[in-house]
Design goal:
The chain is an alpha/beta fold. It contains twelve helices and seven strands. The protein folds into two domains: 59 residues, no CATH class; 212 residues, Rossmann fold. Helix content is 49%, strand content 12%.
Length: 290
């Protein structure tokens, strides 16, 4: 996905929110925003939104000399999500389809994106799962692939959200027993999941792979050897979140499914859904799309 002109204001808003986590004075924050603006001016036409975001976020890292401005917020998001995930799992067991229930919870968790908004875990998530349908729903095709999959690659996105991913993954493993790897960011950016946070919510070290990406999303151009191996060997690839969609949406691969909430006008128009709606879409196309 190529960045549009609207992406510039979104990236600078990200930078502003990042600096709200920095305990410094207004003059220093002004300097950091200026540094991000200068770096963003080096962008080239055809770059992806997540590549623009990396320009600004890396500039702020260098200016503040802080590798992870969101370290406290990430811990809090995971902590708050872990307080309610047992309620979500319990509700799934009495639902018509526990797997789809937990899939929807993982997608709703995609709202926990500090790159888009100031957010926190919604205590009414069970009610929302029960009342909210998927705007794009390739669940039947997803299940066809899942039932046959011996190897799965699950590309993680945000903290907080990852707690619901873990519950979804646990049921997949319990029911289908695949070899399942979760891919994390290889450096902190906004509130995206790194190996540290994946371990904190209960993923085992052997199940985690470094993606190679230091952006708020994934592209194969930056993928680590470990990620490429997992990608090639996977029978099913699950891409969580809008940032991963921005980086991978041009790939047509029947194994690849996007799970996300459409959080901006550009993405909603690309998918022909309303902002805020949930999407489960196979990369080869969806019968739900006009």
């Amino acid at each position: 996905m190529k960045a549009r002109i609207e992406c510039f204001s979104c990236v600078m808003a990200q930078a502003h929110r990042s600096l709200s986590e920095w305990k410094s004075d207004s003059k220093a924050k002004f300097g950091a925003m200026l540094e991000a603006s200068v770096k963003l001016a080096s962008a080239e036409f055809g770059m992806k939104p997540i590549e623009l975001s990396k320009l600004a976020n890396d500039a702020i890292k260098r200016y503040t000399k802080i590798e992870d401005l969101y370290v406290d917020r990430k811990a809090k998001l995971n902590e708050n999500a872990m307080k309610i995930v047992s309620d979500v799992v319990a509700a799934s067991k009495s639902s018509n389809d526990p797997l789809k229930f937990l899939l929807k919870s993982a997608i709703l968790g995609n709202n926990l994106d500090l790159g888009i908004n100031e957010v926190d875990v919604d205590s009414k998530i069970v009610e929302k799962i029960e009342k909210t349908d998927l705007a794009l729903d390739d669940f039947n095709l997803f299940m066809e692939k899942l039932e046959k999959a011996r190897s799965i690659l699950y590309i993680l996105d945000n903290t907080g959200e990852v707690v619901f991913d873990k519950a979804f993954v646990d049921l997949i493993k319990e029911r289908f027993h695949p070899n399942l790897k979760v891919a994390v960011r290889s450096a902190p950016i906004i509130n995206d999941v790194t190996k540290k946070e994946a371990l904190e919510v209960g993923f085992k070290e052997d199940d985690i792979i470094e993606s190679g990406s230091t952006m708020a999303g994934m592209t194969l151009d930056v993928a680590s050897e470990e990620f490429i191996k997992a990608w090639k060997n996977a029978d099913l690839i699950i891409s969580k979140g809008q940032g991963n969609f921005e980086g991978l949406e041009e790939i047509e691969d029947e194994r690849l499914f996007f799970l996300l909430v459409a959080k901006c006008r550009i993405i909603s128009e690309m998918l022909n859904v309303t902002i805020g709606e949930m999407v489960l879409k196979n990369s080869k196309g969806s019968d739900n799309m006009s």
